[in-house]
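Suppose you are handed only these lines of text.
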Amino acid sequence: MNKIQVITSINHEEVEFLCEPQETLLDVLRDTLGRTGTKEGCATGDCGACSVLVDDRLVCSCLVLAAETGGREITTIEGIATEEGLHPIQQKFLDHAALQCGVCTPGLIIATKSLLDRHPDPDETTIRYWLAGNLCRCTGYDKIVRAVQDVARDLAGPA
Amino acid sequence: MSESIDYKLVGTSPVRPDGVDKVTGRAQYGADLNLPNQIHGKVLRSPHAHARIKRIDTSRATAMPGVYAVITGEDFPPPPEHGDVGGEAGGSIGDHARNIMARDKALYHGHAVAAVAARSLRIADEALAAIEVEYEVLEPVLDLDAAMAPGAPLLDENCFTKNLPEKSDKPSNIAEVMLLSRGDVDKGFEEADVIVEGEYRIPMAHQGYIEPHACIANTNEAGQSTVWCCTQAHFDFRAITAKVLNMNVADLKFIASEIGGGFGGKTVVYLEPLAVLLSRKARRPVKMKMTREEVFRATGPTSGTHCKIKVGAKKDGTLTAATAWMAYEAGAYAGAPMGPGALTVFVPYHLENFKVEGYEVLVNKPKVGAYRAPGAPQSMHAMESAIDDLARELNMDPLDLRLKNAAEEGTRASYGPKFPVIGLKECLRAAKAHPNYTRALPEGAGRGVAVGFWFNFGLQSSAEVHVNENGTVTVVEGNPDIGGSRASMCIMAAETLGVPYESVRTLIGDTESTGFSNSTGGSRTTFATGMAVVRACEDIIAQCRARAAVTWGIDEDQVLWVDGQAIPASGVNDELKPLSLADIAENAAKTGGPLLSRASLTAKGAGPSFSVNIADLQVDRDTGKIDVLAFTAIQDAGRAIHKAYVEGQLQGGAAQGLGWALNEEYIYNADGIMENAGFLDYRMPVASDLPMIDTQIVEVPNPRHPYGVRGVGETPIVAPLAAAANAVRDAIGIRIHDLPLSPPRVLAALDAAAD
Ligand code: FES
Ligand code: FES
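From them, the structure of the protein bound to FE2/S2 (inorganic) cluster can be written out as follows.
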């Protein structure tokens, strides 16, 4: 089968890959590029484990064709921490024990980033609806929501 | 409630040692490993719920370019005739072998009938399509009533009901019967002032772990194979794979990846023997992963059930008698958790007269697997609903009724032995005193309570402790960390040794690098493996005292270990400067070499764990939709080692139990094909479905564990089912007996009541 050449940017790094027309961004990230931090829970857009940002838009990478990502800016879990260390969202997830098995965590951290980029001071309902596309079977969401609230509080700074 | 002991670390909530890798995407789960030269395995699955396999022709698939291996049931040795799979997985090894790959019969839609390994997944799919299977389609048996009816089509002509009072010579779909009784039920019901009865049905439900099963097997020309997989039990997986393939255990090395949830479901072997065989044939590493649809169709959910309960009580609430009849779907092969269902149904109560009758029934659905407290949620849903009805009849507070009859230390448990010290009454009192129990409910909402229970298991565990040259400590054990257990091991090791939490790291060894441990299941890891870790640390302390004695030139019994350092016993040798673990480790070369220890045990004395849940639900009378307004999970943990992860178990179990109570179910069509095999239609709770889940950890320490641990993982899923059903009863004044309480069912009940 003829492969398609794609040049795009992942976590601010230019990346070039070849893919088949039906391959998803998730397949390419995980299998072609070895970025396995993005997880697959369903491949049908129902669990959010594969969440990434494409041009700052929260998407399920299992629903995006890799061939369509040329010239975009893609953010994956591998691009969230910086030289300075963990992103505050990552740190608060750890502090609040917001992960048990941790397989939903990359997707939830990406979704949280997308939420806080748009709504720096969300109320609980906003958090719960924004994260409703990300299944977690272990935690019951309580500690995840608290972690997100805590990040938001810190972002708001001292009152 | 809890005697106060001054622990430095036990009961705190430090950040887990494997945390950074899990929030940055570095941690490797089952599908995250790739090996050079690897190829991809896929499974051909039966399109019929019940069929005889007459012929399989793999020649076209085998000849396709890029296809390296094709296997069918014929490539396997005959299923072992003896031996059971231990732990909570259930069933005989022979049946597990047939479940892994069908031999002469396909017994459910999705049953594996062949597998291929090919250069790409696309070629593998094309090869599957090229395999020809000739089936003789048989009538499927799809529910308990049909399967138990006389003359029902048989799944297995050689299945004769076990444990019948009189041995049967007629084959049956009823695999096993269990009868339990005590006292005189007839007399008990005669003494009753009030009797309630109910009949309850619950369909199959799935564990719903987010990570699908995945593995990669690499087999060499000598037949030795290394298997990397997501599992709750890599040692058990090794044993089962060896038996299914008739291999020497020593030729199999299992490495547990990080695991993305299991809840019992990853104690069962599905893919690994296929990958080993394919890899042997192809002489290349073979990677296999299930799709979500395969997870639903072909891995073991928990049993659909049918329970009938009758309970009698005196006016003052004293229970006089109870009977239970229950049938559990086993799916395609025996191994349903009917036994634990029967043993737990009356477990919270002091009961002189009872009778339990349990049936385990084969149906053409996937072979059920363990799911968190296997069997108990279904039977206890029935009893706890009946107790709620009884409280209404008696006009008693439902917690008071339970307190009046609650089992305590010395009560003979309905499952046989006398209870050791347990925390049921403490949990009930905590619930009564909880502000959430008396808070005013909004208009139209209802409140329900229920009790949960799990035995908790001990089984075998091993641990090693290495002291590094700078006094830091490495703990090695063999239980995959499914919810923060590395952190708990670090806490117990650090507390025992008297060193900081940060100086201890725990790693999970593979089957060749550490001693045997049974599964991360049965709520046993913190209890049993924790016990092994504590013992190994105690051995390190003994060695440190000996090393200090050598250093100081005094007798060992003149050396004490206090707060992480060796000190001379008071009164003598007071001038000696205490030696820390780091001092002793740095000097180890001169005092006898590296410090290491190990402990292995069959842990006895697992402590039963009770819970009480309070659910506040609101029912929309127009749509039948239920909103969870508040939920309170109270549970006796014995002692919480890592507090936040214990809370997490309570919260996660509550969410799963609520999902099961309100929405989740396997829906089958008349041909036995599951109609909702995806997360969109198998509707698990999402963040916007739930409120915060309040927890209260009750601590009635288990005297048989060095820190009082009981085990907490499974009990939390038990009580939410009845708590939710009782809340709906409270909200709408109608008892809906069956689960899930999905909008159509609730609407139908409201409509029926309005007529
Ligand atoms: S894997 Fe993409 S939503 Fe589940
Ligand atoms: S922590 Fe396991 S699915 Fe979220």
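What can we learn from it? Chain B has three domains: 19-26+458-603, 39-139+207-298, 375-451+607-754. The CA atoms of residues 305 and 328 of chain B lie 5 Å apart.
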